[in-house]
Fold:
Amino acid sequence: MKHTSDTPSNSDMPSDSQATQPNASATGQAAHAYSSQAQRASADAQAVAGDEAAVAEALADVDVAELRRQLEAAEEKARQNYENWARATAECENIRRRGQDDVAKAHKFAIEGFAEYLLPVMDSLQAALADTSGDAAKLREGVELTLKQLYAAFEKGRVTELNPVGEKFDPHRHQAISMVPADQEANTVVAVLQRGYTLADRVLRPALVTVAAPK
Structure:
């Protein structure tokens, strides 16, 4: 009977050279990776050095004194612009305030001129009242003179009398009290019961009138 041995033979055992082959391969890969990283780092360092050199070269070409002069000029221009703005703002405020004062004064003294025109009329009326002579003709003459003074004051104050007899009825300037039979064309003013007045183009009081009725 033939016996077999469980002990492996020398031919089944790996040789020393075969055992060391994987370790040598790993070492080579690591060395290659390190070399690549070193090359990239060197390239980056060279690029940074190149950038720094370019910056240094650019700075060498800069005229610091010229830059300072330009900065001072810009600051002076900004200061002048601010002062101009401040003056313009103050002037606008002064104009606004003067405008408000002028409007307030215009409202307060709007009739000052017209009141001055009426002062001679007041003087004549007071003189008429002080006259105790009892002369009717003289009194009438004084009243007529006073009326002329009043008309003159109205004219200076641009107050115009409305006495529209024979004119077409105007509802903006006349107030009709009644319609009466008349020979005139319908809606013609026949009589004025009370005269009206305008100030410039504004009606102070419409004239009270009667108008011709339609035939």
